Amino acid sequence: MLAGSNYLDLAGDARVIAAAQEASASAGCAAGGSRLINGNLCLHEALEQELASFVGAEAALIFSTGYMANLGVITTLAGPDDVIISDALNHASIIDACRLSRASTRVFRHNDPEDLERIAAGCAGFRRRVLVLDGVYSMDGDVASLREMAPIARAHDMVTVLDDAHGLGILGPSGRGVASLESVAVDVQIGNLGKALGSFGAYVTCSHTLRELFINRARSLIFTCGLAPGPLGAARAALAILESEGWRRVALLERAEQLRAGLKASGYDTGRSTTHIVPAIIGDNQAVMSLCERALELGVHAQGIRYPSVPEGSARIRFTPMCSHSVEDVEHVVKLFSQLPH
Ligand SMILES: Cc1ncc(COP(=O)(O)O)c(C=O)c1O
């Protein structure tokens, strides 16, 4: 399995499963309503405190999914008088949030600080400027150039939102994410409970003031059921394991590097990847899907990805290894893909 986001292999960990069972046994299978009515549980608030302290933020707020976190955060921060400045390869949920916000949207060339500067220079007339970036670009495996972009954001008085769904828990010191890796502070970070943490749901880390604002304004938090006890219990256990078992992050990044080097040596184009997401960019849709199906028949699941998940003409096999893959597992995958026609 090299097609999922269960990067640290915690979704099936006996301790995580037991924590989900215990949380369900003690608090039930549902939050039972919106968090602003009756669905705000001690479990939500305990996990929020643990996540804020893990990331080193003042506060955290759990949303039911990452998609909803992006909708809630972006539509709260930007409205018709504002401008959102968005990377060309941002996740679909960010794109949808920009549309829903009714703010003006300007898209800059992927990870290009010069283009960001050019666009920012033309946005002085708006009430508020919101810069939105992915931490790790989910189809390419490259990391936002935050160190170069942060001074631009400061100079143009932008609020910075980082969707670090794939980076939090894995990259940076102790897995504290891309902002920490790049030694940059951002205003809002969005993390995911369903990827490195092997559970389900998402969270935002920010100041106490912004948390209050999101609680009062983010419609995808207010008008939906709170996250259920099971995923909350699982995420709490997974966070504790992630913090105490640093070998998981190290092994994941080592296997990803081995995979990237092996694929490159076999003639594959791994693009800009430097992380645990490793694409093999081929271009043609049919060629990619045939390769994906053939590998699956031979026991390896690495997903073929086509437009609209990636730009037309850049179809690819996307490999996402796990920390529990062995050196031999990765050797096997590389050998198999080197032998298949590509
Ligand atoms: C960068 C990014 N943001 C947001 C999401 C959405 O998260 P969720 O699956 O929790 O809705 C994903 C993928 O699932 C993602 O890759």
Written account of the structure:
The protein is α/β, with parallel strands linked by helices and about 350 residues long. It has two domains: about 15-245, Type I PLP-dependent aspartate aminotransferase-like (Major domain) (Aspartate Aminotransferase, domain 2, 3-Layer(aba) Sandwich); about 245-340, Alpha-Beta Complex (Aspartate Aminotransferase, domain 1), CATH 3.90.1150.10. The protein has helices at about 15-25, 40-55, 65-75, 90-100, 115-120, 145-155, 180, 210-215, 220, 230-245, 245-265, 285-295, 325-340; strands at about 60-65, 85, 105-110, 130-135, 160-165, 190, 200-205, 280-285, 305, 315-320. The strands form two sheets. A seven-stranded mixed β-sheet has the order 1-7-6-5-4-2-3, with helices on both faces. β2 (about 85), α4 (about 90-100) and β3 form a beta-alpha-beta unit. α1 (about 15-25) packs antiparallel against α10, α3 (about 65-75) runs parallel beside α4 (about 90-100) and α11 (about 245-265) runs parallel beside α13. The longest helix is centred in the last third of the chain and has 19 residues, at about 245-265. It is globular and about 55 Å long. The mean pLDDT is about 95. Bound molecules: pyridoxal-5'-phosphate. The site of pyridoxal-5'-phosphate (PLP) has 14 residues, from α3.
